[in-house]
Every structure is written in structure tokens, then in C-alpha cells.
Amino acid sequence: MTDKKVNYKAILKESGYRKLLISTMINRFGDSLDAVAFTWLVYQVTHSGVWSAIIFGMNILPNVIVQPFAGAIVERLDKKKVIVITHIMRGLLLVGFLAVYLSGTMNGWIMAGFTFAVTSIEAFNMPASTAFIPKVIKQELLSHGLSFNTMMSGVVSFVGTGTAGVLIAKTGIFTVVIIDIVTFFIAAFIIMTIKVKGNNEEEMQSVNKEKYFTTLKEGLCYIKKESLIWNYCIIAVMLNFMLVPINALQAPLVKECYKMGSGLLSVIGMAGSVGAILGSALIPVVSKKFTVKKTILVFSFILGLGTMLLPMMGIIINIDQLKYIFAGVCIVIITLSVSFISGRINIEFISNVDSKYISRSSAVFVSLSTAAIPVTSMAVGWAKSILSTSTLIIICGIATVTFTVILMMINPKLDKHEEKIYEVNTI
């Protein structure tokens, strides 16, 4: 089954994978609605680009300080149960958020607290989901399974972000939040129906014999000993660092640079979904034609160029239709590049990490790779008080291109060639 089309048919024959795919799509649809609504709500309530940056930082912070510990805890638990429980908890938390919003007492501090709480729960969900994937997808179908899963998530994100602008304009934030709440509960129910094959109980019993901090330490040691994964972490840190202004200042970008409203925010979300869909669909092709190193270098350079161009035409062009087109094209270029880089690294990670360490290792990997984002978000919030949104984004585009050139000069090891398999020493 080397043909891409045949492989996609093969993974869809797997009952567990189909359910996982449907659950992911439903959950992603709700998230895409919420992403547009919440981003716009933050700016509407606070009228501040600084708060936009701070809340974005709060959205990432739990990935740094909670997820390493969450990954070690999840390693000792039933992964399916963790996914179900965290979906339900996030749904209930949204119910509380909606109640505060309807009471008219919403402010920046409450939004920051809510964001931190939701992402803290996600910190347990993410390593559980990563470890759950290999249990429902055969190893030989893993690359195409991950690609198709991401591609379909992009499709529903495209629909969701496009729908969000209309829903917000016609019905307000209330409807969007209600839909997001329902999607969490539906996704949880579908995951409950998946039957997992394999020795899940034996794996849990084996890990449960280990002390918690030993489990966490081994996850850290595993990544430290795997030079490829460590290099991927460094690259992810740098690219996440440079993408912060685009992610944190979307609403100010729309308002200040393009002089437009939530409609353009939806277009940006839809364009991002298009880039993600194309990237996911083409990852198997890129993996065959490009080495990991070439993928990272080429698309990091393109990412930098797209970032520099994004705010420029919003200032130059005065025709709304052209603004929609130009912003959309830039975002497609940016997200396509990010999809190729992150998708390739994600496949390499899941394919090469020992399944015994995958939850704790993925948690530590995410924590390390996102460590700079909260600090950068705070710095962006401060810089926003003295620099314009367009200046900040252009600076980060230039920094991305510079980083790519430096990466080419130092030539780090990014491809697997005679990597030794790491085994944790036991006493």
C-alpha cells in the first residue's frame, strides 16, 4: 500500500480510526468557532492590543508549566478516559464562562483566568491524545493517518472560521459558545465508544510501578539523549517565538492595519485552514521528495517572507476586496509553511519515540518548544505600547529569515541516519 490513495482508503476501513477522526473533526469545528469569537471578544471587551498579547500568553503558559507534569501523570492513566474526562471538563468550564459573559461582568482578568484554566485542562488532553493515536492506527498507516486527520481537521476549521463571522454578526457570541460546548460533549461520547486493541492495562501496570518523579525524569532524559528531538525542540522554540505577534495580535492587525472588522478575522481563519489542509494533504509527498532538513530550511524562509508581507498591503491598499485577498494569500503561505514544518516534525516524533515514553516525552517536547511563547507574549504586550502592530510583525518576519540563514550556516543534524536507540537505565 504505497500509493497515497490506497493508504487513505485503508485507514478509513479501521473502525477505531473513523471514530477518532469524527471526534477530532467535531471538536475542531467547535474550537474554530471559539477561536474567532474569543479573539474578537477580547479586543471588544478590553479595546487593547496589550490585553490581546497577555491573554495569548496565558493560553500558552500551561503548556510550559503544567504539561510536563501532566504528561508524566497521564502516562500512568488510561489514555481514553483522560481524553473523555478532559473534554467534559472543558465543556463545563465553558458553561461557567458563558454565565459570566451573560451577567455583564466580563473583563480582561476574567478572560485571562478562563484561558489559563482551559489550557491547563488541555495540557492533560494533549499527551493522552498523542499516546492514543498509535493505538487506533496501524504503524504502517501512521503517516497517512496523521496527515488525513490533520487535513480533515483543516476542512472543518475552514467551515468553522467562515461560519463564525456570520454567527457573531447575526446572533452574537452566545450562539458560538453554545455550539462549542455541545461539540465537547459529543466528542467525548464518540471517544467513549472506541475499542482499543493492545496491552493497555499491562502498560498502565508497568508504569504505575514507577514513582511519579522518576517517570517525569525519564521523559526529560529521553528527549535530552535523542539529539534529533532536541534539535527539533530548539527549532520549534525559535519559530514559535517569531510567530507570537501574528497569533497574539490578530484583532489589532485587522483593526489597525486593515481598518476592518470581524469579517476579515474570519477570512484570516479560513485562509489558515486552507493552508493547513493543503499542508496536511501534501505532507506525504513532501516527505518523499524533501529531507527533514530541507523541509525546515525552505519553508522557514518562505514563512519569514509571508510574515513580512502580511501587514504591508493592509496599510497600502484602500480597496476592501483586495485587502481580503491579500491577507488571505499571506496567511495561506504562512500556515502552509508551518504545516509542512510542524507536520514533518510530528510524524518523525511519533514514528521514532518508544511507545512506553510517548506521553511524557510529547508533554516535555511541547513544554520545551513553547517555553518562549508566554514570555514573548508579555514582551509583545510591552512593545505594543511603543511600536505599531505592523512594525512588530515585520520585525518578526525579518528575524525568521535571519534565523533560517543562521540555521543553514551551522548545519545541525535534522535527519535520522544511524541514530542509536535510547534505553532508560534501571537499577
TrEMBL record:
Domain of life: Bacteria
Keyword tags: Cell membrane, Membrane, Transmembrane, Transmembrane helix, Transport
Recorded topology in the membrane: Multi-pass membrane protein
GO cellular component, one term: plasma membrane
Membrane-spanning ranges: 20-43, 49-70, 82-102, 108-125, 146-167, 173-194, 229-248, 260-283, 295-318, 324-342, 363-383, 389-410
Subcellular localization, as worded in the UniProt entry: Cell membrane
Electron transport keyword on record: no
PANTHER family linked to this entry: INTEGRAL MEMBRANE EFFLUX PROTEIN-RELATED, MAJOR FACILITATOR SUPERFAMILY ASSOCIATED DOMAIN-CONTAINING PROTEIN
Protein name (database record): Transmembrane secretion effector
Source organism per UniProt: Eubacterium ruminantium
